[in-house]
Amino acid sequence: MSNHHPASRTMPRARKVILTAILIALTIVLQRLLAFRTPIIQINFMFVPIMLAGMLLGWPGATFVATVADLIGAILFPSGSFFFGYTLTAILTGFTAGICLYRPDGVKLDRNFVIRLVLCILIITGVLNGGLNTIWVLMMTGDASNIIVPVRIVKQLVMAPIMLLTMLALMKIFAPRLNRLLGVERDQTQTV
C-alpha cells in the first residue's frame, strides 16, 4: 500500500452521501431561488457548492452534484423550456471544478490552490458560461448577438473576480473545518 491516500476515501460513506445531498440542495437554492435572472443573463452563487464539491469529492462527486442539481432544479423550478445544452454546461462545470480543485491530501489555501482556482474560474467563466452558454442562449432566442454577446461578456468579466474573492474568503475561513470533515488532520499553515 502506498503512502498516497485520497482524503475522500477516509470520509465515511454516510457522511459523503449527506454532504453530496446538501451540496445538491444548496446548488438548487442558489441557482433557482436566490438568483437574479433575465432572458439574457443570470447572476447567482451556485458556483460555491459546485467548487466545494470539487474540492471535497473530486471530479466524480462535483460532476454528480452539478448534474443532479441542474436536472432537479429544471424539474422543480422551471424557467422556460428545458434545454439539454445547459445541463451539458453544468456537467462540464462540475467536472472542471473537480479536476482543478481536488487534492487527495485535503484542502489547503496556498499558492498552488490559488493558481488552480484561477484556472478553474477562467475555464468556467470564459469557456463554459461565456462560450457554451452564450451559444445555448443564441440558439434559444434567435440571433440577437449584437445585444446578447456584449452583455454576457461583461457579466463574465464581473463574475470572475467575484468568484475568486468569494472562494478565497471561504477557504481562508473554512479550510481547517473542511479537512476535519474529510478526516484529514494536518497542519494547515496557510501561505498566500
Question: TL;DR of this structure?
Answer:
The chain contains six helices and two strands, in the order ααββαααα. It has helices at residues 7-10, 13-33, 47-76, 84-101, 111-141, 145-182, and strands at residues 36-37, 42-43. Helix 3 runs antiparallel to helix 4, helix 3 (47-76) crosses helix 6 and helix 5 runs antiparallel to helix 6 (145-182).
Structure description:
With 192 residues, the chain is an all-alpha fold. The chain has one domain (8-182): Orthogonal Bundle (Arp2/3 complex 21 kDa subunit ARPC3). 74% of the residues lie in helices and 2% in strands. The chain has six helices and two strands; from the N terminus they run ααββαααα. It has helices at residues 7-10, 13-33, 47-76, 84-101, 111-141, 145-182, and strands at 36-37, 42-43. The protein has a two-stranded antiparallel sheet. A hairpin with a 4-residue loop joins strand 1 (36-37) and strand 2 (42-43). It is globular. Residues 1-9 and 187-192 have low confidence and may be disordered.
